Amino acid sequence: MEIANAFALLANFVIVPATAYGAQLALGALGVTIIFGILRFANFSHGELMSFGAMVTILVTWLLQMNGIGLGPLPTALLALPVGILATVAMAVLTDRFVFRFYRKKRANPIVFAIVSVGVMFMMAGIIRIVIGPDDHSFADGERFLISYGDFKKLTGWDQGIAIKQTQVVTVVVTLIVVAFLFWFLQKTRSGKAMRAYSDDEDLALLSGINPERVVLIAWIIAGSLACIAGTLYGLDKTYKPFIFLQILLPIFAATILGGIGQPVGAVLGGFIVAFSEVTVTYAFKRFLAYLGPDGWAPDGLVQLLSTDYKFAVSFVILVVVLLVRPTGIIRGKVI
Amino acid sequence: MSFLAATGMTGGYGGADIITDCELRVERGEIAVVVGPNGAGKSTAMKAVFGMLNLREGSVVFDGTDITGLAPQERVRVGMGFVPQNRNVFVSLSVEENLEMGAFIRDDDISQSKEQVFELFPILAEKRNQPAGELSGGQRQQVAVGRALMTQPRLLMLDEPTAGVSPIVMDELFDRIVEIAKTGIAILMVEQNARQALEIADHGFVLVQGTNRFTDTGEALLANEEVRRSFLGG
């Protein structure tokens, strides 16, 4: 019984939220890794691209809600998501046409690209502030829980319950579909194979007659779609805060580098590892240990390694350690 | 007029000319070998033929058409295949995917070409699902040659196909190259192993300092006292 309660506690506060957060990071890191694999630069504007996608999705969601259109138990945002994806892809492709292509033609150094992407990031952030403002917005609707804390307790008779939010389920299910589709595309289709070939060796791809501009276009379409989905899911789960998307770059880059830059499988792996580390390190294990220890005993302190305010430090530590110990990442990727 | 006639090629990578008035020719079904000391401009001459180098002077005529102005990708489309010396396979792609990428410009059914490559290099059929980066040096070269053959080229250009492989593998590769030539494909290759290469060559070009020093049949070059003394080690 005690062990069941300990597990429920851990699941409720660590496993479930970290899985959802990991899925969001994985989607973000996939976008960064694909742009790196094809265009060979660290795209700092990816966070704001996520924000842009979430913003468009929110605007369309509001429009749908005003007209009384909804998805019942599911969030209306899912219905608005395709429009958001189209807008984000358009944004990504347009920035490529007007900004990145210029530097590509000049065969600029990757560091120049990275700095240019910082400029793009500020520009996008500005557009977002103008359109939707700097305030937070909650746009989740539909059923709140798949199973609530109280229901779970009633069902099992345990002291501790596991609450599973609807947004967490939506996040995980959508991520599974998107990742499965992406891997199918990269592994099985002609265009996907051409992208991997181009990522592997640009010159040889050229000799094989692969059109680089087409590969780059597909890369931006994928990155834009992933960014919009990741941003929307993150916003659904935790409310949309325009300012968070600058901070979220750190865990996303940590996940990308940890998994191996340019390696899609690594990005997914990295996303979950970073998420679980962040949540585990900032969780107070006091009650968890109390359940496992002898009756009536409880640890004196909170048994919390880091205050939640420092959660971004976890990504930073992971980043530094990976770069020192294994710069190629878990799955041998490119080294910047 | 030869099937491929690259004449009067002069050019370099921006600065000084690396090749001057260089000439390479090859006929259908024949093997032409370019040999010479290190730094003679052999690889540069190959790149010039394939359009990877801007020529200041000279022209490249392929099957009666002047292709001097074409980009490398366009030359692939007119029927030229090129196997670079380094980085000539997609290391993270499987052997089969490498072949598929070689045939990227083709819209028709490629399974027959794939089977032909597997027939030519049986070991590749065995390792078709393995990433090319995990193969041995000789096997990699086979993948590289196979990749280039997938476009069904009429001219196959090889830049040191036997670099870094063992003598046994080298002999085998040469055998395969002769087989490929017998199907009517013209072969132009650069080789470090000059003696062995000239033995299978119909024509040989000895380049020194970016210009033709000797041009003759492979046999005649092997018999030439001066060529032997200077370039073949006695």
From TrEMBL, chain A:
Top-level taxon: Bacteria
Topology relative to the membrane: Multi-pass membrane protein
GO cellular component: plasma membrane
Keywords of this entry: Amino-acid transport, Cell inner membrane, Cell membrane, Membrane, Transmembrane, Transmembrane helix, Transport
Compartments reported by the entry: Cell membrane
Alphabetical list of InterPro entries matching this protein: ABC_transp_permease, BCAA_transport_permease
Chief site of localization: membrane
Pfam families noted in UniProt: BPD_transp_2
A single GO molecular function term of this UniProt record: L-leucine transmembrane transporter activity
Membrane-spanning intervals of the chain: 20-42, 49-65, 77-99, 111-132, 168-186, 215-236, 242-261, 268-285, 305-325
Record-level GO BP terms: D-alanine transmembrane transport; L-alanine transport; L-isoleucine import across plasma membrane
CDD domains hit by this protein: TM_PBP1_LivH_like
Protein family: Belongs to the binding-protein-dependent transport system permease family. LivHM subfamily.
Protein name, per record: Amino acid/amide ABC transporter membrane protein 1, HAAT family (TC 3.A.1.4.-)
Automatic annotation (TrEMBL), chain B:
Residue ranges occupied by any ABC transporter domain in the UniProt entry: 4-234
Keyword flag ATP-binding: yes
InterPro entries in UniProt: AAA+_ATPase (IPR003593), ABC_transporter-like_ATP-bd (IPR003439), BCAA_Transport_ATP-bd_LivF (IPR052156), P-loop_NTPase (IPR027417)
Record-level GO BP terms: L-amino acid transport
SUPFAM superfamilies found in the cross-reference section: P-loop containing nucleoside triphosphate hydrolases (SSF52540)
GO molecular function: ATP binding; ATP hydrolysis activity; branched-chain amino acid transmembrane transporter activity
Keyword set, alphabetical order: Amino-acid transport, ATP-binding, Nucleotide-binding, Transport
Keyword Flavoprotein in record: no
PANTHER family registered for this protein in UniProt: HIGH-AFFINITY BRANCHED-CHAIN AMINO ACID TRANSPORT ATP-BINDING PROTEIN LIVF
Annotated family: Belongs to the ABC transporter superfamily.
Name of this protein: Branched-chain amino acid transport system ATP-binding protein
Organism (species): Thalassobaculum litoreum DSM 18839
